[in-house]
Each structure stands twice: as structure tokens, then as C-alpha cells.
Design goal:
By secondary structure, the protein is an alpha+beta fold. The protein contains four helices and four strands; from the N terminus they run E-H-E-H-H-H-E-E. It has helices spanning 19-24, 39-44, 53-64, 71-85; strands spanning 2-13, 26-36, 89-99, 109-117. The relative contact order is 0.22.
Length: 120
């Protein structure tokens, strides 16, 4: 089993509880970590024998384009979509970070981490 990470994916999206966030949007950063068996790819050196980072990114990008009120909801959608799309993904961890959240003070970011295991 191997652990693969996609770190610092950046998106401009329209997630948030406030009308202003939904109208003007803000910056988000996502990290995805997943476990999969890469033993065949380690020998074959063939992308068809593993989970493509590009394919993972495209799933995340698609989920980020759908507005949500809560980071928890975004993270759950991303994690569930990844497990649904990739049969070989056994575990996934999604960190959703909102940059400069409108909380009335200085705060660089706020994050939510969602973890899911495949249930067989």
C-alpha cells in the first residue's frame, strides 16, 4: 500500500455562509492524501497501473465549482467523489482551507479535514 498526496491545489470558489462570500468568492487551498496499492505501477512504470494525479485533480476541481455553505460539506463531497470514482482508493483525507476568512479579525486561514475509508 502506498500513500499519495496532492498538496496545495488552489481554487477561487464561492463557498461560504455569507451572501458576500457566495457573490464575490474567495481563495481556497486543498490537500488530498490517499492510500492505494501501487505495487504493479512500481514495476511496470505505467500510469494505467495506478491512480492518475490528473484524474484526482479533475474530480477535486469539479467539486470545487459547486458552491456550498460549509467547508465540511465541500470536504465530504470531495472525499466521497474520489472514493466513488477510484475503486483502488482505500482511504482518503481531504483538507479544505479557506484563505482570509471574513471573521472580523486577522486570520490567514481556516481548515477542515475530512477522512473516509472505503467500506467493503
Amino acid at each position: 500500500m502506498s500513500r499519495i498526496s496532492l498538496n496545495g491545489m488552489r481554487f477561487y470558489a464561492f463557498h461560504g455562509c455569507f451572501a458576500e462570500e457566495q457573490a464575490i468568492g474567495t481563495h481556497f487551498e486543498l490537500d488530498v492524501v490517499f492510500d492505494t496499492d501501487t505495487s504493479v505501477a512500481q514495476v511496470s512504470d505505467n500510469i494505467a497501473d495506478t491512480i492518475s494525479y490528473l484524474d484526482v485533480y479533475q474530480v477535486v476541481k469539479g467539486e470545487m465549482s459547486q458552491p456550498s455553505h460549509l467547508l465540511e460539506h465541500v470536504g465530504e463531497r470531495v472525499a466521497s467523489a474520489l472514493l466513488t470514482k477510484f475503486d483502488g482508493m482505500e482511504y482518503v483525507e481531504v483538507r479544505v482551507t479557506k484563505m482570509n476568512p471574513p471573521l472580523g479579525g486577522q486570520l490567514r486561514s481556516v481548515s477542515v479535514v475530512i477522512t473516509k475509508d472505503r467500506i467493503r
